[in-house]
Design goal:
The chain has helices at 2-14, 31-34, 58-69, 75-86, 106-111, 116-123, 146-153, 182-193, and strands at 41-43, 50-55, 98-101, 132-134, 157-159, 171-178, 198-206. With 214 residues, it is an alpha/beta fold. The protein starts with a helix and ends in an 8-residue tail after the last strand.
Length: 214
C-alpha cells in the first residue's frame, strides 16, 4: 500500500492534475467549472419537455467533451451526482424514475470504451434501463442541420426488449447535450409507441441559442 501511495505522489508531481474545463493546474475539477451546472431549466422548443443544466459553451462544453471524447471517465461520478440532484426537481416526474440513456452509434461507443451516457446514468444511483439503440446507417450528426438530423434518425431508433423498464414506471430520457431535439424526439416517440410514458428529457447541456444559464 505504501508503494502505491508513493507511486501516486510521484505521478502527481510528474503529471499534476488539470481541470478539464478551464485547464487550471492542481485540481481534477475546479469549483468554478462545476458551478456552471445549475438546477434543471426548461429548454424552449416543441416536443417532449426538455431540461438542461448548463449551456453547451465554454468550460461546460469542455467538461462534456473531456468526458465524452477525451477519456476522462472519472467525470461520470460528477455528472451522475448532478443528474441525481436534478431528477427530483423535474416537474411531473414521479418518485423513483427510471433513466433511459439516449443511444450512441455503435462505432462511437466502441471508441469511447462504452456508452458515456449509460456510464453517467449508472453513476446517478437511479434505476437504469438501456432500452434504446440505433440501427445501422446513423451518421455522426455534428455537422448536420435540423432537417438532416431528423432524416438521419428516421426509423433508426429501436427498442432493446431485454432492457426495458418495468411497465407503468416514470421514465426520464437522459443525454449529454440537446441541439435540435431530433434525438430526443425520435427516442421519446419509440418509447411512447411501446407504451412507456416519458415524463421529461434531461440533458447536461443545451446547444440551442436560447439556453438556461446566460
Amino acid at each position: 500500500m505504501a508503494a502505491g501511495i508513493v507511486a501516486a505522489m510521484l505521478m502527481n508531481l510528474l503529471f499534476p492534475p488539470r481541470c478539464p474545463g478551464c485547464g487550471t493546474w492542481g485540481v481534477r475539477l475546479c469549483g468554478r467549472c462545476l458551478a456552471l451546472f445549475g438546477p434543471p431549466k426548461r429548454v424552449p422548443g416543441t416536443g417532449p419537455p426538455v431540461f438542461a443544466l448548463a449551456a453547451y459553451a465554454g468550460s461546460a462544453r469542455e467538461l462534456v467533451l473531456a468526458f465524452k471524447e477525451r477519456g476522462r471517465r472519472e467525470l461520470a461520478t460528477v455528472f451522475g451526482a448532478l443528474v441525481a440532484a436534478a431528477l427530483p426537481r423535474l416537474p411531473g416526474v414521479g418518485p423513483g424514475p427510471w433513466l433511459v440513456p439516449a443511444p450512441s452509434r455503435a462505432s462511437a461507443a466502441r471508441a469511447r470504451g462504452g456508452s458515456h451516457v449509460l456510464r453517467m446514468a449508472w453513476a446517478s444511483g437511479f434505476p437504469v434501463a438501456p432500452a434504446l439503440a440505433f440501427t445501422r446507417g446513423v451518421r455522426d450528426s455534428v455537422r448536420l442541420d435540423a432537417a438532416s438530423r431528423r432524416a438521419n434518425l428516421a426509423d433508426r431508433v429501436r427498442l432493446v426488449p431485454r432492457c426495458l423498464p418495468p411497465p407503468g414506471t416514470s421514465v426520464v430520457l437522459l443525454d449529454d447535450v440537446v441541439t435540435t431535439g431530433s434525438t430526443a424526439n425520435a427516442c421519446v416517440s419509440v418509447l411512447k409507441a411501446a407504451g412507456f410514458g416519458v415524463s421529461a428529457v434531461l440533458t447536461l447541456t443545451t446547444a440551442r441559442r436560447t439556453h438556461p444559464h446566460g
